Amino acid sequence: MRYNRFGNTGLIVSELCLGAMTFGDRSGGRWANIHGLTQDDSTALVKQAVDAGINMIDTANVYTTGQSEEFVGGALKALGIKRSDIVIATKAMGAMGEGKNDSGVGRKHLLDQIDASLGRLGLDHVDLYQIHGWDPVTPMEEALEALNDIVRSGRARYIGVSNWAAWQIVKALGISERRGFARFVSDQAYYTVAGRELERELAPMLMSEGLGLMVWSPLAGGLLSGKYDFTAEGAKGEGRRANFDFPPVDLKRAAPLVAAMKDMADKRGVSVAQIALAWLLYQPVVSTVIVGAKRADQLADNIASTQVELEAAELERLDELSALPREYPGWMLAMQSSYTADKISERRKARKSPA
Predict the structure, then answer these.
(1) Which of 88, 110, 117, 326 could disulfide-pair with 331, CB 3.0 to 4.6 Å?
(2) Which pTM does this prediction carry?
(3) Contact (Cβ atoms closer than 8 angstroms) between residue 278 and residue 305
(4) 80 phi and psi, to 5 degrees?
């Protein structure tokens, strides 16, 4: 297990993060196909992850309507994990009840939910508190001021965001700088070798502004596990996507990628999933990749991806197969930036040439 600096902070996190979305055994809900683990099951996975060197766990208040947080807290207590040895992240924004103020990022909801999350986790603070999505109703300044108060009160060490557009994050950073608020240090976003849309705007922004990236659904909901056959009718196979087709993926783009990764996996005697995760670990914008599991063997396979080294030619092959078509202004930026880039190159060559 390798460790990375979390964005532009002094926080050090493992390159894999244990996702707790599978924790909880309550029936029903939008994500019923994902969760299903008991407290004992969840504790066993936390132990396995920590023993492998993972030092970060990500959950959210909406996962099994709070039960995931309860099970994370129960695991930490049962295993006697030292608080300073673990990085705990949770999120708020989704509906936690039927009331008018039981969702969103309004001040009332955020302040209520951080206290509720801490109570379920059995902690006096979380290391990272994240806005889980975009709220079109609440003024951004209100949400940012509430998050700032949460940090200043000691209930969270850092704040982050998830599922926002690049312009929204940059606007928030500007407000925080102007108002002297705690700023976002990270973005939790979807990113896979078969879904590289993040590279259009978000990735350059994250690199420019020094934010860390936490990757969710790194196997595209299991589609990149190698367990599915790609046909004209779609992806066929046993697994979560058979009943829950999320996140959306361009199957015409994914099919040749999975075939190429299968060849790479067979050459090494590893799983296709390990190749897909290894590709992400090579991307400079990535701070940590969130891996979730329902079984010990699934988690073990994901952890083993940290030992996979891809050759330069293999990385080039995957990049070639998965490259995004250029959209405006991307193609114009590439063309016009060459004007000055070429001049710099020529000057450097001139300096190296003999007089």
Answers:
(1) 326
(2) 0.92
(3) yes
(4) 65, 35
Please say whether the beta carbons of 110 and 92 come within 8 A: yes
CA distances from 344 to 119, 330, 333, 352 (A): 57, 21, 17, 13
* Polymer length of the chain: 355
Residues annotated catalytic, as ranges: 63
What is the tens place of the pLDDT at every residue in 288-304?
999 999 999 999 999 99
Tally DSSP H helices, then E strands, for the chain. 11, 12
The superfamily (CATH) of domain 3-324 is NADP-dependent oxidoreductase domain (3.20.20.100)
Please give the structure tokens belonging to residue 31.
Answer: 């994500």
Distance CA 299, CA 96 (A): 29
**CA separation for the pair 329, 92 (Å, rounded):** 34
DSSP 91-124: EE-S-SSSSTTSSSS-HHHHHHHHHHHHHHHT-S
How far lies 291's CA from each of 7, 17, 266, in Å?
A: 19, 6, 22
- The predicted-structure confidence for 197-225, as pLDDT tens digits, reads as follows 999 999 999 999 999 999 999 999 888 98
